[in-house]
Amino acid sequence: MPLPDGMAELAAVLPAAVAYGIHDRLTQMAKAHADAGANQASGGLDQRTTAQRTTGQRTIDQLRADLLSELLLRGAPAAHDTPDGLLAAITARVDVTVPVLTLIDEGATGDAVDPASGTAAAVTAAQVPAELDGRHPIDPATARILAGQATAWNRVLTDPITGGVLAVDRYRPGEDLKRLLAARDSRCRFPGCGIKARELDLDHTHDAALGGTTESANLAGLCRRHHTLKHHSWWKIQQTGAGALEWTSPTGRRHTDRPPIPATSISSFANKPPPF
């Protein structure tokens, strides 16, 4: 059930023995975690009361909630799993909608905590909040954590006036597109660079945050050095078709780099016997 301040309530009706057993186990785990952290910090026994024990400013109640979240999100059902571990392989999925400017904003005035790992992240005060499953607001820091951990996520382009959906695409290329680009860009596409494809980043020529699409006509393989150069220098780049890249240097000079031509034939002398 949704609650204010980006929270929600999850309840379960269980047999009393099971419910009290769960609470007791979580309490023991929380105390053990708090004691271990306190002993490590002080080098001796912790003399505070249970209610005062904290680990990284987390109280016992907060630790119980952290541990419950982690066990439910990452634990495996010992008594009900299939022989091949099918249930243990199932991972949680949530849908998050977050404005791109909120996603890339690095300014911060507060902290949010990832419930599974306890990792803190910064929150910016004047940001448009993200939405969980299209109906529940969450803070931008949590949204950035979820987006950063996702293997892939879709970008929804909306009309700035009406808010209507105009298009949907995926920021991270799929496996088929990755294979196509690895075959096309067998080396870094900066003029004169010969670093091989396995060490390249797939870069959006026209920045995805500014509307660039995730397709072969807007992606190119760059080594990390020239990927950084493209984003943090006066070098400019555009695609002119058929995978060709036009680079413009800080002095205004233009360089065209075309995709390497793969070997598609074998020379006639390949079938001749060796001269020895």
UniProtKB/TrEMBL annotation:
Domain called HNH nuclease: residue spans: 176-228
InterPro entries: HNH_nuc
Highest rank taxon of the organism: Bacteria
Protein's recorded name: HNH nuclease domain-containing protein
Species lineage: Bacteria, Bacillati, Actinomycetota, Actinomycetes, Micrococcales
